[in-house]
Specification:
- With about 500 residues, the chain is an alpha+beta fold.
- It has a domain of about 210 residues: D-Maltodextrin-Binding Protein, domain 2 (3-Layer(aba) Sandwich), CATH 3.40.190.10.
- About 45% of the residues lie in helices and about 10% in strands.
- Helix 1 runs antiparallel to helix 19 and helix 2 packs across helix 13.
- The longest helix is centred in the last third of the chain and has 18 residues.
Length: about 500
């Protein structure tokens, strides 16, 4: 959720060419000995861990010494921005240098990292160690964030769904029905109903404040895709003819009636947002709600706690801290709910010479005890509840601090990140095209029809240039059911 620079069409084509080159690196790194190898392990007194600058990092820093106390292994923790982390990892992986022992991985990097043998599958480690308690992880989370080609390649340290945040005092003053808190109550909670509410909120004067109906992410290329893809997927939009189900067919379906309807709805939301939202990145959109002039918005679940602060991780309580609540994400009429799942995970580079210690840290940092410790850090007004483990949602201590956990868990159960933002090997190049054109639609430079027609053409060019269309390589039937089978096998 960090700021990314704008990408021009010419820059985009350079990115696409770079993606093609990276695809050719598969097999250049020697396979790694699995857990249980007979090779003797050297004594390890420290490991290097690279993390991204996101809310979980603040909490992890506060408790990381606990790992050293338990294991005797010191952790040298380094935090980087999203762009800096991605660039540094790619550089170190290509060179084969051992830059870190544990790395933070975006779910969109899994395919490239694993297919190029840059990270190690964790299957053998998990199967050999019952302490991982794999069955406690929410299957939808592991499916969306951590599996690729039938392997668990990372484990989640921060898991996100998307839901609605709204002003309780404003809704009461205007007589609006609050968004439902359970799936059972959400039958009539459609995007049409949500758009109607946003229209009723926009321009209203409540307690001396003139409201914007909502706020959206408009910055291209990446932030706007994160938010819009949720809405488009809800309307039934899909990026490709068939993925992640086998056989894979990457023929673009981005220019569909469903996606045109979804993008038109997003333009309506932008028109009810502050003008500067055209340049809003993740945190801009999320923290604007804290300023008290936004009626409601939908966004990643970390904002369920981040909006308690007046700004990002300031520790200063916002004026709306006692007058907001959260609810379920709307669904499109006639369609089942579909929630985008995202977040951050920990992986093990194949280049590390400290695999056992790296695994020990991954298991610890994604485990129940450490995740609870992170959630109980009081700094910044308790700013971590991004749990991928089901048991933490039932923990009484955590429920007292984060009263929305039931809603968040229901949203997790409706999630499928691989349908909303499909993590295929050249996703990043396609995202650059998509974000550019969505932004153009919001600013009025293109109609939804024009923007998606252009996106479709560029998708085809990039896919063909990267040997993905027609797709002639091995597919995998990457469904939630396949992930559930994998969990059962490794946990058994």
């Amino acid at each position: 959720m960090s700021m990314q620079s704008a990408v021009s069409r010419r820059q985009f084509l350079k990115v696409a060419a770079g993606s093609a080159a990276l695809l050719g690196l598969a097999g250049c790194v020697a396979p790694v000995a699995p857990a249980g190898s007979s090779a003797p392990a050297a004594a390890v007194d420290s490991i290097r861990v690279l993390v991204v600058g996101d809310p979980f990092q603040f909490a992890l820093e506060k408790i990381v010494d606990n790992f050293a106390e338990q294991s005797g292994v010191q952790v040298n923790l380094e935090s980087l921005s999203y762009d800096a982390l991605n660039a540094r990892l790619a550089t170190s992986f290509v060179s084969g240098a051992s830059d870190a022992d544990v790395v933070t991985v975006d779910q969109m990097w899994n395919s490239q990292y694993y297919d190029n043998q840059w990270i190690v599958a964790l299957d053998d480690y998990i199967a050999a160690d019952n302490a991982t308690n794999l069955g406690d992880f929410i299957p939808e989370v592991l499916h969306s964030l951590n599996t690729w080609r039938g392997h668990i390649v990372t484990l989640p340290i921060a898991s996100y769904a998307q839901g609605v945040m709204y002003r309780t005092d404003v809704y009461e003053a205007l007589g609006l029905a609050a968004p439902p808190k359970t799936a059972a109550e959400a039958g009539d909670w459609t995007w049409d109903a949500y758009l109607e509410q946003i229209g009723q909120l926009d321009g209203q004067d409540v307690n001396g404040t003139t409201l914007h109906g909502t706020v959206v992410c408009g910055a291209q290329p990446v932030p706007v895709v994160h938010m819009y893809s949720q809405l488009g997927a809800s309307y039934g939009a899909r990026w490709f003819q068939q993925f992640p189900e086998a056989p894979w067919d990457f023929t673009p379906t981005i220019n569909s009636p469903e996606n045109i309807a979804g993008l038109a709805a997003y333009k309506q939301l932008y028109d009810r947002s502050p003008d500067e939202a055209i340049n809003y990145v993740w945190f801009d959109a999320g923290t604007r709600f804290s300023q008290g002039d936004i009626g409601a918005f939908f966004w990643w679940t970390p904002y369920f706690y981040l909006i308690k602060n007046n700004g990002y991780m300031t520790g200063e309580l916002s004026t709306i801290v006692e007058s907001y609540d959260v609810g379920m994400l709307p669904h499109a009429a006639g369609r089942d709910p579909l929630v985008s799942l995202g977040g951050w995970s920990l992986g093990m580079p194949s280049s590390t010479q400290k695999k056992d210690a790296a695994w020990q840290f991954i298991q610890w940092a994604t485990g129940t005890e450490a995740q609870k410790q992170m959630a109980l850090v009081p700094d910044y007004n308790y700013q971590f509840s991004d749990f991928g483990r089901r048991s933490l949602y039932a923990d009484a201590d955590l429920r007292a601090i984060y009263p929305y956990l039931d809603v968040q868990l229901e949203l997790m159960g409706q999630g499928n990140g691989k349908l909303v933002r499909p993590p295929m090997p050249i996703y990043t190049s396609l995202e650059a095209v998509y974000g550019l054109n969505i932004n153009q639609v919001l600013s009025g430079g293109l109609t939804p029809e024009q923007g998606l027609a252009t996106t479709d053409t560029l998708f085809r060019n990039v896919l063909q240039g990267n040997f993905m269309l027609p797709y002639q390589f091995e597919s995998y039937n990457d469904t939630l059911e396949s992930t559930q089978e994998l969990i059962a096998r490794l946990a058994g």
